[in-house]
Amino acid sequence: MPGKTKIARSASAKRKWSAEVTRNSHALDLKQNVFNLTSAKKIAESLKNSAAKSNHKKGTPYQSAMSMLNFYINRAGKNLSAAQKKRLELAKTKLKESFQKKAPNKSKTQ
C-alpha cells in the first residue's frame, strides 16, 4: 500500500529534522554537545556566547539563545532524564540572569 509507505517516510523525516536543526543551526553556531554540559551555568554561558557571535540571528542575542534552549527542551521531550531537564530549566534562569546583568540601568534619579 503506497499510502502507508509515504506516511512512514514522512513521520521518519519529521523526527529527524529537529536533530538536524540542533546539530546544524544556521541561527547559532553551537558548541558541540552544549546541551549535555554538566552545569546549567556553562550551558547558559555557551548559548550566550554563541548568540552574541552569530550574524544570522533575527532577534536579540537573548531571544536567539533562549529560543534554541526551549527548542531543545521541547524536542527532546520524554527522552530527557529528570536531572537533565532540571539542569536545562535552570539554564533558562541562568541565561535570563546573565542577560539582565548586562542591561543598562533604566531607572534614573531626577
Coarse shape: globular
Kindly name the structural category. Answer: mainly alpha
Q: What is the H-and-E element order?
A: HHHH
The strand count comes to: 0
Mean pLDDT: 79
Rg result: 17 Å
Strand content: under 5%
| Alpha carbon gap, first and last residue | 76 Å
The number of helical runs is: 4
Percent in helix = 55-70%
- Biggest sheet overview: none
Stretches with pLDDT under 50, minimum 5 residues: none
Structure write-up:
The protein has 110 residues and is mainly α. Helices cover 66% and strands 0% of the residues. It contains 4 helices and no strands. α2 crosses α4 (82-102). The chain is globular and about 30 Å long.
Structure characteristics:
about 110 residues; mainly alpha; globular
Brief description of this entry?
With 110 residues, the chain is mainly α.
List the helices and strands and how they pair.
Elements (H helix, E strand, L loop, with lengths): L1 H22 L16 H14 L7 H16 L5 H21 L8
Helix pairs in contact: 2-3, 2-4, 3-4
